[in-house]
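Re-run with default settings, no changes from the original entry. Doing this only to confirm the output is reproducible before filing.
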Amino acid sequence: MSDWQERITHETAPAIRVEHELRYRLAAPLILSGGPWADLGCGNGVAAAAALGDARPGAAVLCDLEEQAVAHAAQELGIAGAVQLTGDLTDPSHLERISEATFAIGERPVFTCFEVVEHLQAFVPLIEWAGGLARERAATFLISVPNDAFWSIQNPHHLTAWGEGSFEELRRLLPAEQTLLRQVALSGSSFTSWDPATQRHDLAVDVGGSDAVATHFLAAFGPGHDELHSSALAVQTEMLAQRRWERQRESNLALMEMTLETTLDRHTVWFKEWRAYIHELERELGRPLSGATPEELPEGVEPTA
């Protein structure tokens, strides 16, 4: 079943998986450059594993709020000896543990923090910590946030909202030397020969422009920030997987609606029975009927709260 708390799984909609995978592909040259890699908010590791292909960094630190997610990421990535840490990224003591674990492995580390900041109650401790490591310890950071102007919905799992203005405020907290990128959605189709053999198409796509609304914003800073370049990822849409994901979501929603309706009906019946019992006692005591409408009361009797 898909994880509606926004952790990427193998059952997540293919389009969303590609979106996450592209961010790790962007970071892959830095991740594989030889220094330690720390993934903050690693989730289940599905997108990172897909982006890295058969390649793996020599050492990694995987961090998340939930121990089960970190263990799953370590298994998915298959990095021998990966350091697994759990904790809150708003906690300075946990951030210090991440620093110690990462620099114990080696120097000039790369930190990825994709789609995490919006889930934090406060992100300033993380940004200040990251900026300090970039300036003083030659660490490179890649951080992304969603653009709520694109999604146009209130996400119950996001504790902060992001757009052009809020991302500009975040940028001002970062070291002056930085690379900023916009991630935009692509859509397309292809013809293939009748022969079922796989074919490869090299595409030229025009992206960006004044009309393009970014799905996400990405900021990189530290010594490796200028090694990032605009890129795109297009894959054959897994329509069966996409349809299965959508039907699963519809099924889950219908089940929740049915459960809620049944629960409300049950509570309504309980309330009516309880109210009838209370009114019976009030009649025996000669007291006004509580909560009764004027039509339910004897003439001249005022309703009570």
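Helices lie at 14-31, 46-52, 67-77, 92-105, 124-136, 148-151, 164-172, 239-285. The two ends are 47 Å apart (CA to CA).
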